[in-house]
Write a structure and sequence with these properties.
Blueprint lengths: L29 H11 L5 H19 L9 H12 L11 H20 L22 E3 L1 H10 L6 E3 L1 H10 L6 H10 L3 H6 L5 E2 L4 E4 L2 E5 L2 E5 L8 E4 L2 H17 L23
Parallel strand pairs: 1-2
Antiparallel strand pairs: 3-4, 4-7, 5-6
Helix pairs in contact: 1-2, 2-3, 2-4
Protein name: Core-binding (CB) domain-containing protein
GO biological process, one term: DNA recombination
InterPro entries: CB (IPR044068), DNA_brk_join_enz (IPR011010), Integrase-like_cat_sf (IPR013762), Integrase_recombinase_N (IPR010998), Tyrosine_recombinase_XerCD (IPR050090)
C-alpha cells in the first residue's frame, strides 16, 4: 500500500470543501475519502447509498476517520471489527454477523474505488475474516411462539404463518380497500416494493399473468422507481381465477373513484391516487 503523505492525483471535493475538507488525494484522511466517495459515486442505488452512509457515519468515521488514507492498514481494519464485534445494539445484543459483513462490504467498496483512483495500491480490507453469517431458517409462527413473543419480545428471524393464521388474517382485512394487495402478498409472494410499484400495464388479466418489472423504494422521504435488484427478480407470475376476479373488481372500483387514469397508473394507491409506500 502507498505510504507517506505526498498527494496523488488531487481533485476538488464537491460542496466547496465543507464535506471533506478540500482536495482529495493520497494525503487525505479516511474520513475525507469516504465522504468524497459517497458524494461522487453515481453507480450506487439510492437505497444502497443510504445504507453505506449509515455505515460510514455510525462505524467507519468514528473508528478510522482520522487515519490518513495512504496509511490505513489491515491491522487498523481488523482492530475496528474486533471492537464492533464486542459492541451491543440498542436491544443489548451483539451486532449480528450479517451486520458486520454489510459494514465490511461498505468499507471494501470505498477502498476498491480508492485503488481504482490510484490513491492506494491495495485494499487493506481484503482478506479480513469475519464470523460466517448463519442463514436464517424460517420457523412456523405457532401459537406457542406468539405467546413467547408477547411475553418476552423474542421472535424468529424469519417466521411464516400457519394456513389457519393466514386465513384469519385475510378474513380480518377482507373489507380493506387494499385487500387485493394483501391477497397477492400472501398467495403470490410479491415483495412490498414490487406490490407498491405494480402498474396496470404490468398485468394481463386476459392471460392471467403478472409481470414483475419494477419496484418502488423509499429514499430520503421520496418514492423512487427502480428495476428489480436481480435478473431472477424479474419474473412472470401466474394468476389463479379468484385472483383475476379480485383484480378486475379492484380495477372497476378505481375507475369509479377516479383513481385510474391509464395503464401506467399504479394498481395500489391511496384514495387521492398517490402510490402506496412500501414501508406503510
Amino acid at each position: 500500500m502507498a505510504r507517506g503523505t505526498s498527494p496523488c492525483r488531487f481533485r476538488a471535493c464537491p460542496g466547496s470543501g465543507s464535506a471533506c475538507g478540500g482536495d482529495i488525494g493520497a494525503a487525505c484522511t479516511v474520513a475525507q475519502w469516504l465522504r468524497y466517495w459517497l458524494a461522487t459515486d453515481q453507480g450506487i442505488r439510492p437505497r444502497t447509498r443510504q445504507g453505506y452512509a449509515d455505515h460510514v457515519r455510525l462505524h467507519l468515521l468514528p473508528a478510522l476517520g482520522r487515519i490518513r488514507l495512504a496509511e490505513l492498514s489491515f491491522r487498523d481494519v481488523r482492530r475496528m471489527f474486533m471492537a464492533l464485534a464486542g459492541r451491543r445494539n440498542r436491544y443489548g445484543r451483539p451486532l449480528a454477523a450479517a451486520s458486520l459483513e454489510r459494514i465490511r462490504a461498505t468499507l471494501r467498496a470505498a477502498l476498491n474505488e480508492a485503488v481504482r483512483e490510484g490513491l492506494i495500491d491495495t485494499n487493506p480490507a481484503r482478506g479480513l475474516r469475519l464470523p460466517a453469517a448463519p442463514r436464517p431458517r424460517a420457523q412456523v409462527w405457532t401459537d406457542r411462539r406468539v405467546a413467547v413473543w408477547r411475553a418476552t419480545g423474542e421472535r424468529p428471524t424469519v417466521a411464516v404463518w400457519t394456513v389457519p393464521r393466514l386465513v384469519d388474517f385475510l378474513d380480518s382485512v377482507r373489507g380493506d380497500a387494499l385487500f387485493p394487495l394483501w391477497w397477492l402478498a400472501a398467495l403470490r409472494g410479491l415483495r412490498r416494493g414490487e406490490l407498491a410499484g405494480l402498474r396496470w400495464v404490468d398485468l394481463s388479466l386476459e392471460t392471467a399473468e403478472l409481470a414483475v418489472v419494477r419496484q418502488l423504494v423509499q429514499v430520503g422521504g421520496r418514492l423512487v422507481s427502480f428495476p428489480p435488484k436481480s435478473q431472477a427478480s424479474r419474473r412472470t407470475v401466474a394468476l389463479d381465477p379468484q385472483t383475476v376476479r379480485l383484480l378486475r373488481r379492484h380495477e372497476r372500483e378505481q375507475r369509479t373513484e377516479g383513481r385510474f387514469w391509464d395503464g401506467r397508473a399504479q394498481v395500489f394507491t391511496r384514495m387521492d391516487g398517490s402510490p402506496v409506500a412500501p414501508t406503510t
